[in-house]
Design a protein that fits this description.
This protein folds into 2 domains: 126 residues, 3-Layer(aba) Sandwich (Rossmann fold), CATH 3.40.50; 209 residues, Rossmann fold, CATH 3.40.50. It has 12 helices and 15 strands. It has a 7-stranded parallel sheet, with helices on both faces. The protein has a 5-stranded parallel sheet with strand order 2-1-3-4-5, sandwiched between helices. The chain has a 3-stranded antiparallel sheet with strand order 9-12-11. Helix 11 links the parallel strand 14 and strand 15.
Length: 358
Amino acid sequence: MPNQPIRLLIIDDSAYNRKTIADFFVGSPKVQVVGKAADGQEGLKMALNLAPSVITLDLEMPRLDGFGFLRILMSGQPTPVIVVSSHGQKENVFRALELGALDFVVKPSTMISPSIRNIREDVIQKVMAAGKFNLNALQNLSSGESATGLIPIIGDLAPGDQSPTDKAAEKVVVIGASTGGPASITKILSSLPPNLSTAIVVAQHMPAQFTATFAARLNRLFPLRVLELQQGQIIKNGTVYITPGDSNLKFSKSADGYFLEKSPLSDRCRYAPSIDRIFISAAETVKTNLLGVVLTGMGDDGALGCEKIHGMGGSLLVESEETAIVYGMPQSVLERGLPAKKRPLHMIAGAIASFAKQ
């Protein structure tokens, strides 16, 4: 029922952390804490018996850790999971996202500390977003092939052709994503050829400490080059640029091609990095040779930027409701009456490849 509270299960081996997270929701009519578990094994039993609508999960626990918990849960009873992890567990966080976790919150300390209260707003926001998830999309994302097992799109280079990845990009794809985005971006990149005749710039809402690790992990997985953006880079075909979590981007053009400059986040930015700001700058510089793609996420970041892309003659694509984990961002683009094409996640790589060939 739409008016029923979100049923939250908290799994953490620290009794202090379990109580603190539970206290975040005391008095809330929108969230009911239905259980607290000290490890993954106890958490699995509670998940099966209590049928929570959202779970917060620590990764390092005795008996059954967070990874084992996710494998079993997602194979039998897919449920939105928010990982609550420390700064030092970056690789583990992305491993958990690949196993089906929906999002993560960064603990301020690896030690049991009152500073965990500092993540209160972040935990509340992400639990509320997870409560609006698309169950079918989560099941498909959890039960699909692993990112490295997907069959890539076949490139169309003739024998002897020069690889376009040595050239400065004339076409650019900008992708914006939030909740559920890391797994969705991973699946898209897994199906793109390395000889792609366009550059891709990704704005994923993510803490600054994690974007470099995200880029490095994607770069190891796929033949496409994936880099965290560095100041003043000329963007090239066949390369994916991940926006640092502590910066916005400004597109510029020189005789050598398009290049990107980082600018600090302003107090007016509701999201980090701002998809709107990146899309608007790209539209003003790249104009008709631009494709804007909006994936899963809560809120409306990207809608204003898509309006600018359309106004400057660029093209628009949004993830369709059937596969978006949270449909807020794609829906906000369509609600503006913009002529964005809707595509399920498994068709977005093909749409990007077609844009590159035009």
